[in-house]
Amino acid sequence: MVQTTDISDFPVMKKRCKTCPFNPDGDEELQGRVISRLFQASQICHHPNLYGKPSTHLCRGARDYQLEIFHRLRVIIEPTDEAWGKAWEEMKVKMDRLSPKQKN
Length: 104
What we know:
Elements: H1 28-35, H2 47-50, H3 60-72, H4 81-98
């Protein structure tokens, strides 16, 4: 069974953890597993789990990878969190326009 977590309020880490799989000396196997699901979801930072702490942030390395891909696909104008936020807000407006109106 796939575990799901509501990450809508999770901020992205300000910088990569020392153990981030996206660092040059990172765990390539873990990086590959994360990359395989980046178009389906955002990755929660693995670092707190190493120390038995709750997960509260998204992985900076995975987000950087997503930003680069979405920029190359021209989904966002530049590979930044700000461009991602703007594109996300624009997409939500479009989705609201497309969804059928709920009548009370």
